[in-house]
């Protein structure tokens, strides 16, 4: 029964969290079509205007070909650059950003490679194939993809985190049963997982959720281990931090918010739950009740919204900040263009990575703890 609850909660969290990162790509085909139309219009405009000399092109070409004499005046008159100049400019533009690829989503995954630049990009989905979801919209006209659900890098990282979470906990549970039958007590890895689960169950869930809180144990434990594995994957070279994506953290926070509000509806009933939104004191005259209601109701609504917002932003900021600091420190080596200063940035980066290992556990623990506290707060209103 515990395995069934765990599987159901994990599947729901994975489905919602993996669909969420696609929101940024939902309008990509439409934007591409508009960009192509705009480019065609600009091309027609350029063809209608007499060719002039592009001063920036001349300057760039002169700078790139100084000392080589490889400048073609005809290409400059047409506003074009030599192939070598264009290649150098494209190379500079391609390698300008060396920090954000590790913490942003994309449609490719970097795998280790033995040649420079020491990685090879692999597409997350077959080229030319798009997995589209077209919701019912009677006002929509056209064949463009309304919701692009093609898996991205963070989606695969989430699936991998969920797979590791399921394999680790289920294998530990079976090893626990096997060792208990043989020796009467678990040992090794299963004993460590048991200690972690028992601590979270007693000190995080039951102590904060309140009486009869057993039914919330599966949800809180799933949140903790899923976030933990997603955080730890972000520390692996060539991997990515899915919890550094606001869509992922917001989805996890929204799931927690839904759990909190449904718990309040069940525990308090319709009348009691409405009192958590509309403040209505019982020990005041009518005019005082109306005055306090007008003042306190917006505050109550804001407090409900602030809870999932705090969960999402706290996890997002902490998992993004560490990676930015590490990559910025390593970037100092390339900024100064020498390896003589590498000892200081690399030493500082190693220290930050060790701190990030602690932060990965800490942020998963804080997310689970605050979720249990928020559930307990709305349940305590019924007692």
Report on the architecture of this protein.
By secondary structure, the protein is mainly alpha-helical. Helices cover 66% and strands 4% of the residues. The protein is built from eleven helices and four strands. The chain has helices at 2-19, 28-48, 55-64, 73-77, 83-94, 153-183, 189-209, 217-233, 246-275, 286-336, 343-380, and strands at residues 108-112, 119-123, 132-133, 147-148. A two-stranded antiparallel ribbon has the order 1-2. The chain has a two-stranded antiparallel ribbon with strand order 3-4. Strand 1 (108-112) and strand 2 (119-123) form a beta hairpin. Helix 6 (153-183) packs across helix 7, helix 9 (246-275) packs antiparallel against helix 10 (286-336) and helix 9 (246-275) packs parallel to helix 11. The longest helix has 51 residues, at 286-336. The radius of gyration is 28 Å and the shape is globular. The two termini are 29 Å apart. The model is unreliable at 22-37, 47-83 and 88-97 (pLDDT under 50).
Q: In terms of structural class, how would the helical and strand content be classed? A: mainly alpha
Question: Which percent band covers the strand fraction?
Answer: under 5%
H and E order: HHHHHEEEEHHHHHH
How many separate helices?
11
Low-confidence stretches: 22-37, 47-83, 88-97
Helix content: 55-70%
What's the arrangement of strands in the largest beta sheet?
1-2
Q: Total number of β-strand segments? A: 4
Our measurement of the CA-to-CA distance between the termini, rounded to an integer number of angstroms, reads: 29 Å
Largest sheet: 2 strands, antiparallel
| Overall form | globular
- Cα-based radius of gyration, to the nearest Å: 28 Å
What is the arithmetic mean of pLDDT?
75
């Amino acid at each position: 029964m515990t395995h069934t609850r765990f599987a159901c909660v994990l599947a729901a969290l994975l489905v919602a969290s993996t669909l969420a990162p696609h929101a940024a790509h939902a309008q990509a085909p439409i934007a591409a079509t508009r960009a192509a139309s705009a480019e065609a219009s600009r091309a027609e405009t350029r063809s209608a205007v007499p060719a002039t000399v592009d001063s920036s092109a001349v300057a760039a070409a002169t700078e790139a070909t100084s000392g080589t004499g490889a400048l073609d005046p005809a290409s400059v008159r047409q506003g074009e650059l030599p192939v070598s100049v264009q290649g150098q400019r494209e190379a500079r533009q391609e390698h300008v950003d060396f920090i954000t690829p590790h913490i942003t989503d994309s449609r490719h995954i970097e795998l280790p490679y033995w040649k420079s630049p020491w990685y090879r990009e692999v597409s997350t989905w077959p080229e030319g194939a798009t997995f589209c979801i077209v919701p019912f919209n009677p006002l929509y006209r056209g064949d463009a993809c309304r919701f692009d659900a093609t898996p991205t890098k963070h989606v695969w990282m989430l699936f991998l985190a969920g797979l590791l979470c399921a394999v680790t906990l289920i294998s530990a549970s079976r090893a626990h049963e096997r060792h208990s039958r043989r020796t009467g007590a678990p040992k090794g890895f299963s004993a460590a997982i048991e200690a972690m689960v028992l601590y979270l169950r007693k000190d995080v869930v039951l102590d904060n959720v309140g009486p009869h809180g057993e039914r919330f144990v599966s949800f809180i434990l799933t949140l903790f281990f899923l976030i933990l594995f997603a955080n730890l994957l972000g520390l692996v070279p060539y991997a990515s931090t899915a919890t550094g994506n606001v869509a992922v953290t917001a989805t996890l926070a929204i799931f927690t918010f839904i759990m909190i509000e449904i718990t309040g509806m069940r525990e308090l009933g319709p009348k009691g739950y409405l009192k958590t939104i509309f403040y209505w004191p019982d020990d005041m005259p009518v005019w005082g009740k109306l005055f306090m209601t007008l003042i306190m109701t917006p505050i109550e609504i804001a407090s409900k919204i602030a809870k999932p917002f705090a969960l999402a932003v706290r996890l997002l900021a902490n998992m993004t900040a560490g990676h930015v600091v590490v990559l910025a420190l390593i970037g100092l080596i390339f900024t100064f263009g020498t390896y003589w200063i590498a000892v200081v940035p690399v030493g500082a980066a190693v220290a930050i990575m060790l701190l990030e290992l602690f932060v990965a556990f800490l942020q998963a623990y804080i997310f689970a703890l605050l979720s249990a506290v928020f559930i307990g707060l709305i349940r305590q209103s019924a007692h």
